[in-house]
Automatic annotation (TrEMBL):
The keyword Nucleus applies. The keyword Lipoprotein does not apply. ATP binds at residues 31-36, 144, 187. It comes from Ficus carica (Common fig). CDD domains: ADK. This is UMP-CMP kinase. CMP binds at residue 112. Consists of three domains, a large central CORE domain and two small peripheral domains, NMPbind and LID, which undergo movements during catalysis. The LID domain closes over the site of phosphoryl transfer upon ATP binding. Assembling and dissambling the active center during each catalytic cycle provides an effective means to prevent ATP hydrolysis. Catalyzes the phosphorylation of pyrimidine nucleoside monophosphates at the expense of ATP. Plays an important role in de novo pyrimidine nucleotide biosynthesis. Has preference for UMP and CMP as phosphate acceptors. Binds 1 Mg(2+) ion per monomer. GO terms for biological process: 'de novo' pyrimidine nucleobase biosynthetic process; nucleoside monophosphate metabolic process; pyrimidine nucleotide biosynthetic process. Its main location: cytoplasm. Keywords: ATP-binding, Cytoplasm, Kinase, Nucleotide-binding, Nucleus, Pyrimidine biosynthesis, Transferase. Coiled coil: none annotated.
């Protein structure tokens, strides 16, 4: 089976053009609304949504030999080894038939980031970063009611710690390359999506709410 990059090389005329897939990393603290907004982006802009957490949960349910290890890591809010997550992401990209991806909740640490770039040779077009205060994220997670084993106060606190210590540095890395588009995610879902739309819509299209797209160092409430 060819790689996802091989699949994307073939243009509509069947000729071989070097066209890598477009990848947008969607990052933010637990409960900041990544999955909710990705569903809206898929509907309006034709991306395929790949939640790394969802892929890992599906792997547990598939009876894979890594299932128990993944389940234990998720219960503790820990980061699953890069090779496992990247393999799942690559497989999902190949199977999608699309060439535009929202990768939600990955990379979660510097090692994830470096390994993804090394293995796939793909750099994100940009990074969508949902900024939300911890208290609001905690409220949302405790009322999510989707039966997730990690939506309990003990694991939520561990996930916040990992987010601050390991995941925010990844956002800072991409900010230093001018790739971060920060959104104030503490507002109602529709308002957040107005700001998201402004980022994905073609540049000459006027979209309400553009003023809410922030620089990383402006008004960061998640720390
Ligand atoms: N802007 C918002 N205002 C209020 N509630 C929201 C908002 N966005 C999402 N929610 C709700 O908060 C909960 C968490 O949202 P979601 O699952 O999208 O977050 P997430 O960032 O993907 O979280 P995780 O990292 O745990 O997967 C859901 O119940 C969702 O309906
Ligand atoms: O790249 C990843 C993504 C997720 N995990 C683990 O899964 C849980 C849940 O992730 P969500 O994004 O909230 O769905 C996370 O706390 C990690 O334990 C991971 O290891 N690597
Ligand atoms: Mg999610």
């Amino acid at each position: 089976m060819g790689t996802v990059v091989d699949a994307a090389k073939q243009d509509v005329n069947g000729s071989l053009a070097e066209k890598k897939p477009t990848v947008v990393f969607v990052l933010g603290g637990p409960g900041s609304g990544k999955g909710t907004q990705c569903a809206n982006i898929v509907e309006h802009f034709g991306y395929t949504h790949l939640s790394a957490g969802d892929l890992l949960r599906a792997e547990i349910n598939s009876g894979s030999e890594n299932g128990t290890m993944i389940q234990n890591m998720i219960k503790e809010g820990k980061i699953v080894p890069s090779e496992v997550t990247i393999r799942l992401l690559q497989k999902a990209m190949q199977e999608s038939g699309n060439d535009k991806f929202l990768i939600d909740g990955f990379p979660r640490n510097e090692e994830n980031r470096a390994a993804f770039e090394e293995v796939t040779k793909i750099e994100p077009a940009f990074v969508l970063f949902f900024d939300c205060a911890k208290e609001e994220m905690e409220r949302r997670l405790l009322s999510r009611n989707q039966g997730r084993e990690d939506d309990n106060i003990e694991t939520i606190r561990k996930r916040f710690k990992v987010f601050l210590e390991s995941s925010l540095p990844v956002v800072e890395y991409y900010d230093s390359k001018g790739k971060v588009r920060k959104i104030d995610a503490a507002r109602p879902i529709g308002e957040v999506f107005e700001s998201v739309k402004a980022i994905f819509a073609p540049k000459n299209e006027k979209v309400k709410g553009y003023g809410h797209v922030l620089r990383l160092n402006e008004c960061c409430s998640c720390t």
